[in-house]
Amino acid sequence: MAVVIYQCFMTIPVLAVIPLLAAGPMQGAPVPRVFETLEVCAAITTVYLFTRYAAAEGPGYGTPANTAYEAFTLIVIAAILAAAWVMDTVGLSNALGAFMVGMILSASVFAYQIKASVSSIKGLLLSVFFIAIGMSINLKEVIGIGGELLYYLPVSVVD
């Protein structure tokens, strides 16, 4: 179990470093600069340290976890959104920040309480996710495909 958790934590820096390890710049891709690399490393370190010491094991969760259920849920959601914003600010995927916080919080002493508190709003978050996916559909592209799209419709209905 420890190896699996370690591997999950190591995917984050590896995904962030992959563009730097490329043999040469791709056509049209910007070459990473030292300052931008340091900015990314600082963002990953900040999210990790904040989540690990201030939120997962520190006094930030101690009081709300023991007293107010709603405050605890709010702190969890705020930590996820803040990490997503930090990663988006430095040019990484905001999902990477949310993934980092999720991995760190799943290993904390409050893991079961976090799961219970977030399960109450899971339906709302899933709805927002599917609405965002639906809003990202390019209707001009769908119209451009036209009748060809109707061939695939029975396949999606059968399953």
Features:
0% strand; 159 residues; mainly alpha; 77% helix; single chain; 2 domains
Structure in a nutshell:
The protein is mainly alpha-helical and 159 residues long.
What would you note in describing this structure?
This protein has 159 residues and is mainly α. It folds into 2 domains: 2-21 and 31-120, no CATH class; 123-159, no CATH class. Helices cover 77% and strands 0% of the residues. The protein contains 9 helices and no strands. The protein has helices at residues 2-17, 34-56, 59-66, 69-89, 94-106, 111-119, 122-135, 139-145, 148-158. α2 (34-56) packs antiparallel against α4 (69-89). The longest helix is centred in the N-terminal third of the chain and has 23 residues, at 34-56. The two termini are 35 Å apart. The mean pLDDT is 76.
Task: Give a topology summary.
Elements lengths: L1 H16 L16 H23 L2 H8 L2 H21 L4 H13 L4 H9 L2 H14 L3 H7 L2 H11 L1
Q: Based on DSSP secondary structure assignment, what is the total number of beta strands?
A: 0
Low-confidence stretches: none
Major sheet: none
Q: How many structural units, i.e. domains?
A: 2
